[in-house]
Design goal:
Layout lengths: L1 H10 L3 H30 L6 H17 L4 H27 L4 H23 L12 E4 L4 E4 H23 L1 H11 L1 H4 L5 H26 L7 H15 L4 H21 L5 H16 L1
Antiparallel strand pairs: 1-2
Helix pairs in contact: 2-6, 2-9, 2-10, 2-11, 3-4, 3-5, 3-9, 3-10, 4-9, 6-7, 6-9, 7-9, 10-11, 10-12, 11-12
Length: about 290
């Protein structure tokens, strides 16, 4: 650990730029996942424990499209649309039945969803780690001391576009305004809004966001049926720290988490990255008490 700290401080301080760039680019994807969670949490009050598993579904969607000759970037829209439909079905079958129930029931329902999705993905694709080749190269800076893959930069740009699209949708469209009204006061919104449709649309949009994030993750890292929990924990850390209904805070927290995770992996070792995230979640929960 001390040797790694010495590298960052004395031997190769330019490597800090490498870690920050990696952290910001991957943090943007974390922010996308967390924003979907915050949207569902804020509108329906459901804490979706299957968030990361929806992301894995999107990743395997990209994998299937790639197997049939479709570039993963081009698969992003159809995967998002498929996940939107899946989210609508899940809402009608499960989520609508637990929205008005206690917190424990909704947590149990979404936890059951997470396990079911994991097992279905395992049956369909097996437990092996998969990846999707994007075909993009690397950019080198500072004489080759700093490298960043082009797909990370493309993913960052796509996350920014998706975030802008969501902001415009929520502010300008009639459904977006209905979603915001329902989040602020569900009882008052029922006077002029079909809240059941709003809830269904909200959960479906979240599933579509997770699907898009999964496509990006499949190109940047790897996917595996049981990896969803890692992204669920990250999303909960970000939303817990940033709060609900605050998109700028969600984005900044996600970028910060990405950077912290990169430094943790370099200084402490990759095996401590997840421990760092869980530790942050516990610290935030203790601090907010």
């Amino acid at each position: 650990m001390w040797d790694n700290l010495q590298i960052l401080g004395v031997a190769a301080p330019v490597f800090n730029i490498q870690l920050v760039l990696n952290g910001i680019t991957v943090g943007a994807v974390f922010g996308l996942i967390a924003y979907g969670l915050a949207l569902v949490w804020g509108v329906t009050s459901v804490k979706n424990l299957s968030q990361g598993d929806l992301v894995m579904m999107g990743g395997y969607g990209a994998y299937e499209f790639a197997r049939h000759g479709v570039h993963p970037i081009l698969a992003l829209v159809p995967v998002a649309l498929i996940m939107f439909g899946f989210g609508w079905v899940i809402y009608k079958l499960i989520i609508r039945r637990v929205i008005q129930l206690d917190l424990f029931t909704s947590l149990l329902a979404t936890f059951g969803m997470a396990i079911t999705i994991q097992q279905l993905l395992n049956l369909a694709f097996g437990p092996d780690v998969r990846t999707v080749q994007s075909g993009f190269g690397e950019l080198k800076m500072f004489g080759g001391m700093v490298e960043i893959t082009e797909i990370k930069l493309i993913a960052f740009g796509l996350c920014v576009l998706l975030a802008i699209g969501m902001v415009l949708f929520l502010r300008k469209s009639r459904m977006g305004q209905a979603i915001r009204a329902t989040a602020q006061d569900p009882r008052a919104a029922r006077i002029g809004v079909n809240t059941d449709t709003v809830y269904a649309m909200t959960f479906s949009i979240n599933a579509a966001i997770c699907g898009a994030a999964g496509v990006l993750i499949a190109m940047i890292w790897v996917i595996q049926p049981f990896y969803g929990i890692a992204y669920s924990v990250r999303a909960f850390v970000i939303v817990t720290a940033a709060g609900l209904g605050n998109l700028p805070a969600v984005i900044l927290t996600a970028l910060g988490l990405g950077v912290v995770e990169q430094y943790s992996g370099f200084v402490l070792g990759a095996q401590f990255q997840q421990a760092t995230i869980v530790g942050l979640l516990l610290a935030i929960l203790i601090w907010r008490q």
